[in-house]
Amino acid sequence: MNREKLEKIIISVLRIAGLVFFIVIVAFPFYWMLVSSFKALEELLLKPSNLWLDIRKINFFAYSEVLFRHGFIRYIVNSAYVSIVTVVFSVTLATIGGYAVTRLRFRGQGFMSLGILLIYMFPAIVLVIPLYVIFSKLGLRDSINILILVYLAQTLPVALYMLRSYFLTLPYEMEYAGLTDGCTRFGVIWRIVIPLSAPALASVALYTFMIAWNEFLFAFMFLDTPEKFTLSRGVIQLAESVHLSKQLVMAASVMVTVPILIIFLVSERYLVRGLTAGAMKG
What we know:
This protein has two domains: 3-57; 62-276, MetI-like fold (Orthogonal Bundle), CATH 1.10.3720. 77% of the residues lie in helices and 0% in strands. The chain contains 13 helices and no strands.
């Protein structure tokens, strides 16, 4: 075996080892969370180091307690409402704004294009205190709708930038033909741009939904009433209850993670296509 073949084998082995190590590091916390949520409390206390789950002993007690006794059905509804409304507004405004930036000519267009992403450069921790003070002064702080407004401001710049990059790749001749046939600008957007931009719109919707579903900082700062809590806020409240078993916290964490995981796996191809389609011109 010559030196070149030996180097290729070593590189392949290191690559596989690195991939396995990465998968284990990423997947193990979720695996342990899932296993702990299905085990009986007695088994967790007696054998805390046991990493295996006996399918014959799967226990749904933790999920029943979390859903029906600790109000997580309400938290799921709140999170779904906040996430879906945020997605609808973000995709709609980003579609109109991205089209305007790429197709219309107006004063300050270049500055607006650069400012779209510049806004996103401000970290959330910098904005949370001023927003907290403002909403407290106005008496608007403990409101789910205010949370939607904050998430919209957080996700819209990136959504605009993603759709702007995609719209630059669309042929203008098709839109011009639609305008010639009597369509208005909104008609062109609805009948031509949106059908052609389905992958980009799907990736924007998925990105926005994941942000709104998982976000914790603003929900923690702005929501005080338990009936208005989102899932992430509800998990923290559950974890702070020292008299409760961590088994319940694991079950609640699974409820937060699994929907996003399923949506991501189902929509992965749209996300990749939407993110890469405008890469050459973005």
